Amino acid sequence: MRTPAAVLCGLGTSLPEHSVSNSRLIAQNHLDSDDRWILERTGIAARRLADSRTSTGDLARAAGRAALESAAELAGAPLRPDIVLLATTTPDHRCPATAPEVAHGLGLDGVPALDVSAACAGFVYATACAQALITAGLYERPLVIGAETYSTTLIDPHDRDTAILFGDGAGAVLIRTGTPDEPGALIAQDLGSDGGHAGLIQVPAGGSRRPLGTPDTGPHEHCFRMNGRAVYAHAVRRMTDSALNVLKSTGWSPDDVEAFISHQANQRIIDAVGERLGVPPARRHGNLRELGNTAAASIPLALADTATRQLVEPGARTLITGFGGGLAWGAHTLRFPEARPRSRPPHASLPHTDTDTEKAIR
Ligand code: UT7
Questions:
Q1: Residue to substitute in 35, 232, 294 for testing ligand 1 pocket (most ligand atoms within 8 angstroms of CB)
Q2: What separation in Å is there between the alpha carbon of 160 and the centre of ligand 1?
Q3: Which residue minimizes the CA distance to atom 19 of ligand 1?
Q4: Is the CB of 269 under 6 A from ligand 1?
Q5: 293 is catalytic
Q6: Quick check: CB of 184 below 6 Å from ligand 1?
Q7: Which of 234, 263, 285, 332 is flagged as catalytic?
Q8: Which range is least confidently modeled, 115-129, 228-242, 345-359?
Q9: Is the beta carbon of 197 within 6 A of some atom in ligand 1?
Q10: Helices (H) and strands (E) in the chain, counts
Q11: pLDDT tens, residue by residue, 95-128
Q12: Where do the domains of the chain lie, and which CATH numbers do they carry?
């Protein structure tokens, strides 16, 4: 029997309404920075910031719902997920995981649901797991979501090293069984980690290593810290190497890549990886300028944006790379999906007894 392929068949997004420009962020957080520096050194002009009522789970549920609507439109019939994987570094609670509540909100009670924690590499990790579950014949329709609210949970708004970089949002893909040559088909994957550099990106306190409230915990140690320069160098090297690995196992050369979608952390990093691989600028896609770094959400948001703007033909040879704290990284090759992305604001999904959507996923 032929091994089933995993096929991306629905794309959904959810973004907070509030867009904040560099100059507004600098003014409201009293940052010693300037608009030009941020734009030139990172490629970021603005980011969406969640309000205090919007959780990661709210964004994840709305993006998940949008992905199911997108999949139903393409298939001409509702497709019900049989497992939910939520990639996030900013769950609603430290316990329990956020994915079961997201599944419940989508009318998927009884379906297994778990969080995947791999920081900004979370989406490539979760997608790799979903692909493995399909090819092993264990599940047929994983819903993979990347969702984050860094600005309200991890970021010290007065720390210019990190506050300028991150934005909030969620992106989701529904994956189904299919064949390897159809649009949306995932082909090969490459994953890696190096915990020897765990300290380069870290929230020092609040875990079991240094619980909150212990006497030696400083006031900002529950916030995200990053050694930007060292992370930058790792990001370029690890994503380039991972991309070369996955291209090799796919049997493609960098010249074959028609669309390149990288984790949206810094335009200089994306361009450095693209240059090292030999993928020309016109084939590099993303929305870093408008959304900043949305961590585990950045790749599905960039994928959906590229599809919405119809910049890439369905079926085109596509390369995805991710990188983040851990350190953790990964890459996928795939055929660009055919699904038309749908988007939902985070609160439009409340209350969860929205009958239209519940009908759509049964
Ligand atoms: O998503 C997870 C993975 N994360 C990443 O991949 C992020 C990787 N790192 C980066 O994107 C970059 O390292 C940053 C954007 C964080 C920093 O850019 P950089 O070009 O590496 O800056 P730098 O740290 O080397 O600093 C260069 C200069 C310094 O001034 P001097 O020493 O040259 O006078 C900094 O003090 O820029 C200064 N600087 C700033 N100036 C204005 C650093 N941050 C800022 C700022 N505004 N926000």
A1: 232
A2: 9
A3: 229
A4: yes
A5: yes
A6: no
A7: 263
A8: 345-359
A9: no
A10: 12, 15
A11: 999 999 999 999 999 999 999 999 999 999 999 9
A12: 5-180+340-357 (3.40.47.10), 186-335 (3.40.47.10)
State the virtual CA torsion across 165, 166, 167, 169 in degrees, nearest 10.
140
Residue bearing the CA closest to ligand 1, atom 41: 33
State the CB neighbour count (10 A cutoff) for residue 195.
9
| SS (HEC) of 176-217 | EEECCCCCCEEEEEEEEECHHHHHHEECCCCCCCCCCCCCCC
Only one residue has tokens 């979608």, namely 261
Q: How far apart are the first and last CA of the chain?
A: 29
Q: How far is the CA of 269 from the centre of ligand 1 (A)?
A: 12
The verdict on the CB of residue 264 being under 6 Å from ligand 1 is: no
Give yes or no: 245 in active site: no
Helix axes 267-277, 228-250, angle to 10 degrees: 40
Give the amino acid at 165. Answer: L
User: Across-strand partners of 189?
Assistant: 332
pLDDT given for residue 361 in this prediction: 52
Closest atom, ligand 1, to C-alpha of 293: 1
Burial class of residue 47 in the structure, from the number of CB atoms within 10 Å of its CB (0-12 exposed, 13-18 middle, 19+ buried): buried
| Pairing, β 284-285 against β 259-262 | parallel
Q: Give tens-digit pLDDT for 248-290.
A: 999 999 999 999 999 999 999 999 999 999 999 999 999 999 9
**Distance set, CA 336 to CA 84, 226, 251 (Å):** 22, 33, 17
pLDDT of the residue at 3: 84
263 is catalytic: yes
